[in-house]
Amino acid sequence: GENGGGTSEKFTNRLAKEKSPYLLQHATNPVNWYPWGEEAFKAAAEQNKLIFLSVGYSTCHWCHVMERESFEDDKVAEIMNRHFINIKVDREERPDVDKVYMTFVTTMSGSGGWPMSVWLTPDLHPIYGGTYYPPNSYYGRPGFTTILQALAQQWTSDEAKIRRSGTAIVSVLQKNSNLPKVEDTTSDAPPHGEVSAKCFAQLARSYEPDYGGFGESPKFPQPCNLNFLFAYYFLHPGLDDAKNGLDMALHTLTMMSRGGIHDHVAQGFARYSTDKSWHVPHFEKMLYDQAQLVHSYLDAYLVTRKQEYADTVMDILQYVMRDLSHESGGFYSAEDADSLPTADSKDKKEGAFCVWTHQEIHSILSDLSVGEESGSSTSVAELFCHHYSVVKGGNVDPHKDPHDELKNQNILLQHDTIQETAEQFSLSETQVLTSLSAAREKLFQFRLTRPRPHRDEKMITAWNGMMVSAICRAGAVLGDRAYVARGAAAAAFIKQHLICRETGQLYRAAYRGDEGGAQVTLGSHKNPGFCDDYAWTIRGLLSLYEATLDQRHLVDALELQTLQDQLFWDTEDGSGGYYSSQQGDHSILIRMKDDHDGAEPSVNSVSAGNLLRLSRLLDRSELLQKCRTILRVFSDKLRKIPVSLPDMAVVLLMLEEPTSQVILSGDPESAVLQELLGVVHSFPQPNRVLLVAPPSDDAPLYTHLPSLRLYQPKHSTQAQAIEKQSGGTKDSKPEVEDTRSGRKDTQSGASESDSREEALESGKKDLQSGSRDPHSRVQDPPTDSSHVIESARAFVCHNFVCSLPMTKPEQLRKNLE
């Protein structure tokens, strides 16, 4: 922020020593800001002052507004400095602090958001709070200075009463945060059919049919809801509810892509729309939104095969790789909504970088023509203005522009489909596509001459893991190895810069170094990672494994899962589930368990999904048990309001539905096996377990799944040794020991149908006794000597029965269909 009221620009407060872009924005405020930490707590105790806690993030529009109106004002700052110890927190650096006090604010007022403004006793107990406050009172709403003076007076006159109030509030928050112990809940998670049906019904009630999405305005993308709707359809394509849910998801994604929330010139999506039609966005762009929407549009592409959805995926990734990428491989957090309209401007405006006047469009595109061969007199500018709803007076409703920042401006919004625009101007669709593409590129180049919005160059571990998962899956589904390579580079960045070499534990965030370039720093605090940092990094590594079949990523994921369990799993009171933060920070009054899938899925939802996948990939029953425990811990919420945990509802759905195993045998780097892998990824299968049996004898999966060696390519010395030891030949089956039940299967000489019957019957017995998970045991391959010498083979297994080996992509495709 810039100083106001004549304060010397040389003045800096304690935030000048921080690395957080948000804290640095406030380093020249006349407010004596402290970062969250012992120095501030000690000052509050010694001076016996209330604490004013302000929480936000660097790309938050209303945070900027409150800074301009209050924190840059000398008179307001004087009141703050005289009566309070003032603390600034970047919510993205310290989500634990944000979570505790946001819970208080939402409990007290019924709503929350940022900036968050909370007043605390020196013991850090909250006593009053809200979000944005204007500097002065109006329309009966108290202004910021009024609240400051009133609380200062109350503290002076009745400190004991305020302290008692704070203690009581913390007690209530603690009580409300306690979840039922597992032994106090039903023995099992709620029935998945009941939860799925209720989750769909609750989503359907809030669905807005005209433009898609949920609720009226403001309207957020809410990818968690879309995740559920797609998974529900993929696993139950015959259900009417699932079909209706699919239509809801597809319509939402189509309208979002056409709307102003989508940046049609520089790609990517804004955080939310201020109206129901996705037209007028809040222009900030967040990395976590881009990552989640990649998955949503990939799901839409897989189920429809419509290129427009794949194009949107590539659009998002173009933005992320171009504008949110650090030279060393990490991903930046966000881009701001506000920027200077021109280099000479003094005041930033929301959306200034992204909007256009009608005259600008015609001037910039004046030298572009549709093409003489078309025989059309239509100009590209005219075509563009029609297609993207550009008009002379601007296309923004004044009611959606309270500060007149968008007056006479246009936010690009697709008016028609390509086909409709082509018909309107008697052009071919190819001519329209070519002309619009040329126009967008020209406008993009012009936009580069404008002052850019602020970019938050903090690289958060959780969001980097989230993006690794998205970009690797995109590479796998779309067959683009460049995406997979970019995801691998980001995973390597996490490993190099965000993991402590001594302990293996994660840090929360890294920052661009002071010298710029590829330099990276952790800052002076080196904040330890939170549970979501572990969960999302694990998720990213699992996606990287599935995209590359490199088992090292699976090993890394398991190691991080073990650490996550040690640091965050609730072992204290028998409840189970994951706390969001580690134990031992006395400044965090309440260790909380995230129980809401909102702008991001809750860490318990993400972790439950990770545990389920790892348990099936590695045949680890203790991980499966943890997954089931999480579902039991949150069973009450899943039963009553599953719409608050749609991602967890997906895990419950997957847990109870049959899985398929796809086993690829061969060299993961070979072109033949990569082609088979591409076929696997071209089908939407949420409950697929993807395993690889490579030639290498020391592949990690063989340690976890000894029976997987049966699929090892036959030239392997280890496979030959197993065959020789069991007296097998290339036409017979070796004796296989089930390492979990102690049972041996001797299938030599048995007919294929006998073998299948025995496997199925044995599986039923194991299931009844609870001795194994039906979804994780590697099934024995059927004998077919004509295929054993192939360089790459695929097996698909269902219900303890595996297909004959397939070597041709079309064979595998037909099987998966």
From TrEMBL:
Bias (Basic and acidic residues): 730-746, 753-778
UniProt xrefs under SUPFAM superfamilies: Six-hairpin glycosidases, Thioredoxin-like
Span of domain Spermatogenesis-associated protein 20-like TRX: 12-173
Entry-linked Pfam families: Thioredox_DsbH
Gene Ontology biological process terms in this record: carbohydrate metabolic process
Span list, region Disordered: 714-787
Protein name: Spermatogenesis-associated protein 20-like
Organism: Hirondellea gigas
